[in-house]
């Protein structure tokens, strides 16, 4: 348990297994936060959950605070495209709850398990997907928001489905293949909602095929010259150029 004040001010109160705390702190305005060290079902899995606040600690006298950690259980099925996710550690993704205001997060589980069961502190969260490995089925996104503003106030069942699509095609520059000796142009999809890059392919390969989450993306070109070489003859010299948008 922690007190968080203005800026980066933090005061450690104590661990839950001790059952009580007593700390001297500088007077000021604080909020009480919970961060798990280990959690296996009894304690919530949150990493920075706001419990109470703001509270004011005055210079005179002692402040007595009884801290109760309210928890609920969220559980459900994990599917991809409405069906079972691959049961493989080499085609696997993780799902998190994340509070956008505090940065708090809770690991729900891995897609290969098919279900999840997590104890959490009630609050408002986004549901986030992160690829661990992809062998061609699971989306390559590593910070994609599946759902925003999910209010969790009581124990509930919430199934999570991951909509995946396959992006495929050919890569040419001005309708032709560029000179391999000049370097390569790397292509990325930038998720507009999450502002994350997903590698698509490069100009040295004739085609690409990548699984990604459904959504809106910008297409970015990143020029990479060969050692000692320069771009701008058969390949654009741009380092980070957005040239298309796709849904």
Can you walk me through this structure?
With 247 residues, the protein is mostly beta strands. The protein is built from no helices and 19 strands. The strands form 5 sheets. Strands 5, 6, 9, 12 and 13 form a 5-stranded mixed sheet that branches. β5 and β6 form a beta hairpin. The radius of gyration is 24 Å and the shape is elongated. It starts with a strand and ends with a strand. The model has no long low-confidence stretch (mean pLDDT 93).
Radius of gyration: 24 Å
Percent of residues in helices comes to under 10%
Helix and strand pattern: EEEEEEEEEEEEEEEEEEE
Low-confidence stretches are none
Distance N to C terminus: 44 Å
The fraction of residues assigned to DSSP E strands is over 45%
Give structural attributes.
247 residues, mainly beta, four-stranded antiparallel sheet, 19 strands, elongated
What's a concise summary of this model?
The chain is mainly beta and 247 residues long.
Indicate the topology.
Layout: E1 2-4, E2 10-12, E3 28-34, E4 49-57, E5 72-80, E6 83-84, E7 92-98, E8 105-110, E9 115-120, E10 123-133, E11 144-152, E12 156-157, E13 160-162, E14 164-170, E15 183-191, E16 196-202, E17 207-213, E18 217-225, E19 241-246
Parallel strand pairs: 5-12, 5-13
Antiparallel strand pairs: 1-2, 1-3, 3-4, 5-6, 5-9, 7-8, 7-10, 10-11, 14-17, 15-16, 15-18, 18-19
